């Protein structure tokens, strides 16, 4: 138990100039502190494995700082469940998730990429010339799996407005009763000014801002991660135009094979998460 407790300490609290603890580090500290005279790293790993304690691993996260986090997040989860303000959505209501993926470079490799063959993986030249970068703006109809996207030289109010116009001027969104747009708090679509601007152009558009620093609630981010893995890695393009062609072609390809995401995080899960955070006042104080 003492070794497990030791593994749950941050290295700085132990006076160690380390960012993470390995099993060997835990062994040395246990011996230095007189917990044991001798113990193997394999034994320590087995003890830690029993409680899924892995001090050598870490993950990044953002603590919810929005004072209205639960309400704003709950609205988005309701929309994913086809509900708004306690009432089911109709067949004439649509839900879109939108954002920007910035700085997608065209890395022009100095030597051609070689294809894989038996015993050797694909080889991509390390050195490259920069061929410019796009901002990829996209919107996902979360219940139909329909995608809309465009490449712009930069993000901003005007480029995002062009994406909105691209979607809202075509059927079925043009004549829909309501089209909910789930968006974050980026500078391109922030605050009440954004709401007024979008609704003045399209009265049936309902902007829905998520909580601050909660992009994980926005389904378009899942699609962006797929784009990164499937279409942009490795980054090997001959021109910036080829990047645009790849992004838009992948968009159509993905639509032909994909289905709407099976979103399983519900308002009950959100409530459990908020209770869990409330139960850790030390973590909350540290994050603040």
Q: How many structural domains in the coordinates? A: 2
Main structural class: alpha/beta
Portion in strands: 15-25%
Mean pLDDT: 93
Which residues sit in consecutive blocks of at least 5 with pLDDT less than 50?
282-288
Q: Assign the CATH architecture of the largest domain.
A: 2-Layer Sandwich
Can you summarize this structure?
The chain has 288 residues and is of the alpha/beta class.
List the helices and strands and how they pair.
Blueprint: H1 2-7, H2 23-32, H3 41-50, H4 69-80, E1 83-84, E2 87-88, E3 93-109, E4 128-141, E5 146-152, H5 157-168, E6 178-183, H6 191-201, E7 205-209, H7 220-231, H8 240-257, H9 267-278, H10 281-287
Parallel strand pairs: 3-6, 6-7
Antiparallel strand pairs: 1-2, 3-4, 4-5
Helix pairs in contact: 2-3, 4-9
Task: Fill in the keyword field for this structure.
single chain, 288 residues, alpha/beta, Nucleotidyltransferase, domain 5, 5-stranded mixed beta sheet, two-stranded antiparallel ribbon, 10 helices, 7 strands, 18% strand, disordered C terminus
């Amino acid at each position: 138990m003492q070794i497990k407790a030791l593994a749950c300490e941050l290295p700085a609290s132990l006076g160690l100039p380390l960012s993470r603890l390995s099993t060997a580090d835990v062994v040395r500290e246990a011996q230095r502190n007189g917990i044991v005279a001798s113990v193997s790293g394999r034994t320590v790993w087995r003890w830690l494995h029993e409680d899924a304690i892995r001090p050598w691993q870490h993950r990044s996260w953002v603590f919810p700082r929005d004072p209205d986090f639960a309400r704003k997040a709950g609205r988005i989860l309701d929309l994913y469940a086809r509900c708004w303000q306690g009432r089911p959505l109709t067949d004439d209501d649509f839900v879109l998730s939108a954002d920007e993926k910035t700085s997608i470079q065209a890395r022009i490799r100095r030597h051609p990429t070689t294809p894989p063959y038996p015993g050797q993986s694909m080889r991509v030249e390390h050195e490259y010339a920069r061929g410019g970068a796009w901002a990829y703006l996209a919107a996902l109809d979360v219940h139909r799996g329909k995608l809309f996207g465009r490449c712009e030289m930069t993000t901003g109010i005007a480029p995002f407005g062009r994406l909105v116009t691209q979607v809202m001027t075509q059927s079925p969104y043009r004549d829909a009763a309501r089209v909910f747009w789930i968006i974050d708090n980026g500078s391109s679509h922030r605050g009440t000014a954004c709401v007024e601007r979008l609704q003045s152009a399209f009265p049936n558009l309902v902007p829905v801002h998520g909580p601050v620093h909660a992009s994980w609630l926005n389904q378009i981010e899942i699609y962006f991660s797929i784009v990164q893995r499937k279409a942009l890695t490795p980054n090997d393009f001959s021109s910036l135009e080829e990047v645009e062609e790849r992004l838009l072609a992948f968009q159509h390809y993905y639509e032909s094979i994909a289905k709407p995401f099976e979103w399983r995080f519900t308002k009950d899960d959100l409530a459990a998460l908020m209770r869990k955070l409330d139960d850790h006042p030390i973590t909350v104080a540290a994050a603040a």
